[in-house]
Structure formats: C-alpha cells, structure tokens
Known about the structure:
Mean pLDDT: 92
Number of helices: 11
Amino acid sequence: MISYKNTSKIIIFCPPRKVTGGPEALHQLSNKLYQLDYKNVFMHYIPKRNNAKPKNYDIYKTQEINTIEDSPENILIIPESMTFLIKKYPLSQKIIWWLSVDFYKILMDYRIRKQSFFTKLFYNQDDREYHFEQLPNVFQWAQSYRSGVYLKQHHIPESKIDYVCDYINPIFLENSQPIQKDLSNKTILYNPKKGKKEISGLIKNSPELTWIPIQNMNASQIKDLMAKSLLYVDFGENPGRDKMLRESVSQGCCIVSGRNGSSAYYEDLMIPEEYKFDFSENKIPEILEKIKDVLENYPQHISQFKVYKDVVLGEEALFEKKLKEIFRID
C-alpha cells in the first residue's frame, strides 16, 4: 500500500511536448491531485526540454521539478514507457501507470536492441530495466482492463493492481444540454493516425460515403465536429482505453470498431458485439453494411451506446475516488 504523508512529494514523469492520450492522462493526474488539495505535486519531463508542457494542456494545473530526491516518503508515478527508471530510485515509492501495453513492448524491444548493438559499453540493460520483479515499493496501475490482463500474465497478483483510468478532456463535458443531431449529416469520422490499412480499405470500397479525418484540430473543434456527426469508426490498435472513442460517445456518436487491443474487451469498450469486427478484406462488405445501417437508422442504434456513454461520463468522478483511496494520509 502507498504510504502518503503531508510531506511527501508526488512526482509525475512524462515525455515532453507530446499531445497524445498518455501524456494527457499524466497532466490530468497532476491537475486532479491539485483539485483534491494534495500538496507537492510535480511534473518531471524526460528528456528535459524548454516549453515541455504542450499548450493544449494549459487547462491542467502543473508545476515542474528538475531534481528528484530519492526518498522513502516520495512517490514517483512512472508511465510504462519509462520503466528503466524503476531501479534508478531504489528508496522512493514507485507507481507504474500502464497507459499503453503496446508502447511498452516497442520501447523495451528498442532498448534491448540498443544494448546488443553497443555490447554494453555504455550502459548495462540488466542493471537498469524492470522485468516485473516483485519489489516491495513498486505498485501497478492499469489504465484499462486489458492492461490488467497483461500484468496478470506477467505474474502480478490481482491484489497488487489498482485500476486507475483517466477521463476525457473536460471540454467534452461542459455542455449538459441534450445534443441535437442533424440526421441528414451522413459523414463518418475517423482518426487517420490509427488503423490506416483498414480505414483505407473501407474508404476505397465506399466511394458513395463521405469520410472525415479528425486531424489538426484542438479539443474544442473536435467536440464540435463530433456533436454534429452520427458515427465514429475506429480500427486502431488501441493499446489502452482510447480517448477518441470515449470523446465520440460523449457527443452522441455511434461507434463501429475493430477488436484490436483494449477494444476486444467489453470492460474497456462497452458496446454490443454487433458493432465490433475482426477486420479482413472479405469482411469489408459486412462492415460497410453496418456503417450504412447506422447512418440511415441512427435513432434506433444510438440507444445501444448508452451504457458506454454513462461509463465515460462517470470516469472523472471515479478517478477522483480512486486517488483519494490510494493517497490516504498516514
């Protein structure tokens, strides 16, 4: 169990200048801890950069710290991409927040290859890396159900895992009025950075449909676009609980998705199985048929997404509750 005192420092490690789901979750964590009146909460960016905090995250309260004191009182929150830091601070309490299982695998493979290339002349990987050892002051947070499955596969007991999920950008929660949809708007939203091959195949086989990529937009612009749209399509890898999936359902969009990563688990993407597809070339007609059915009969379909929407709208309150449980003052 985490030991938190009034004199403890909570230090959140984060990559600089990144505007993706993981870094936003880390900035949200800082902001929420300040809102809950915790003291001595800091961001520590690795590698060090000027203007490390992206402008998009100015809505989140943060304070930077440059020097880390390795102390049993301190609590270091480390994303899975930085597990090489675990053994650098042996005295501190450390929480690994598993925001992206896939990203961890990619970076771990890279570091191992780097070690082999330099034949340990510059650093010793075994001395630095964390390999799921049962260390007394290392704790695990799973952002998704899928992350929890991954941890248990690596022999981390369920009792040692806290499920701590971030929440969507507060901009998406500002308007409490019911969203009025123009049912004649038959455009389809998608993230062009995800599931490129799958989306390309769908677009190629549906010249009669209008596909709109969500790109080069801030959160407010994305919200406005989603509020006007009926459908969001996602065939990405989804290493954790995906932000855009959650944002889209908050704005009354139906969803058609793949079954990659966390999307395969109902606990992470709580939509009926009829809207999830194992993508293949011969499945394209079936997927397009579902997409067209949703666009033509939106009022009949949107009720199928109420469970997921309610979960998404409740994530911030659940996040607060979990933080209060974990950081109880000794």
